[in-house]
């Protein structure tokens, strides 16, 4: 594959899957600077991986796997630098004068941010409409395990949502 072919494929994928990149970035990075850094890291990893794409799965599934793996590595590295306080920089998510929809969306992103890596990845894939089979392929865990995790995640979010609704938290 020539570098021009690699660049063309990458540019096509970037245009097609840009929204997915931003969702992954938003869930794993919280400040604008961190989001820019993570977006660039994901883009670089995908560009480097273009020649190894074998079409065993869809490009979207394959790219999602790279984006999630890159984000999980990035967050582990960042947490080491933050001295055990990985969520202290979330204050900017708490806004007071936004609409209810924006508040609930920010609440959801904050809840997702507090999940462990596996639950965070599963939630993001679920919100993007991936099937259990696709999630299983991306994350390398069984479809049954995906189903159990989704059930627990939904139960947790429903409980937290009731607290949010009653207390405005």
TrEMBL record:
Q: What is the lineage of its organism?
A: Bacteria, Pseudomonadati, Bacteroidota, Cytophagia, Cytophagales
Q: Which InterPro entries match?
A: RNA_pol_sigma-70-like, RNA_pol_sigma-70_dom, RNA_pol_sigma70_r2, RNA_pol_sigma70_r4_t2, RNA_pol_sigma_r2, RNA_pol_sigma_r3/r4-like, WH-like_DNA-bd_sf
Q: Which domain of life is it from?
A: Bacteria
Q: Which Pfam family is an annotated match for this chain, by its short name? A: Sigma70_r2
Q: Name one GO molecular function term.
A: sigma factor activity
This protein is called Sigma-70 family RNA polymerase sigma factor
Give the UniProt record's GO annotations in the biological process aspect. DNA-templated transcription initiation
- Spell out the family assignment given in the record's similarity comment: Belongs to the sigma-70 factor family. ECF subfamily.
Give start and end of each RNA polymerase sigma-70 region domain: 15-80
RNA polymerase sigma factor 70 region 4 type domain spans which residues? Answer: 106-157
- Origin species, per record, is Fulvivirga marina
Keyword list (alphabetical) reads: Sigma factor, Transcription, Transcription regulation
Q: Does the keyword rRNA-binding apply?
A: no
Q: Has the keyword Signal been applied to this entry? A: no
């Amino acid at each position: 594959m020539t570098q021009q072919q690699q660049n063309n494929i990458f540019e096509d994928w970037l245009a097609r899957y840009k929204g997915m990149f931003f969702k992954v970035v938003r869930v794993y990075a919280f400040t604008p600077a961190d989001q820019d850094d993570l977006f660039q890291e994901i883009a670089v990893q995908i560009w480097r991986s273009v020649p190894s794409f074998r079409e065993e799965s869809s490009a979207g599934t394959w790219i999602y796997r790279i984006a999630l793996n890159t984000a999980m590595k990035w967050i582990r590295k960042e947490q080491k630098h933050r001295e055990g306080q990985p969520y202290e920089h979330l204050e900017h998510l708490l806004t007071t004068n936004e609409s209810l929809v924006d508040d609930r969306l920010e609440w959801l992103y904050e809840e997702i941010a507090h999940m462990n890596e596996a639950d965070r990845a599963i939630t993001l894939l679920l919100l993007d409409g991936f099937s259990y089979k696709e999630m299983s392929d991306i994350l390398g865990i069984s479809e049954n395990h995906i189903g159990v995790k989704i059930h627990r995640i939904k139960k947790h979010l429903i409980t937290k949502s009731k607290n949010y609704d009653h207390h405005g938290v």
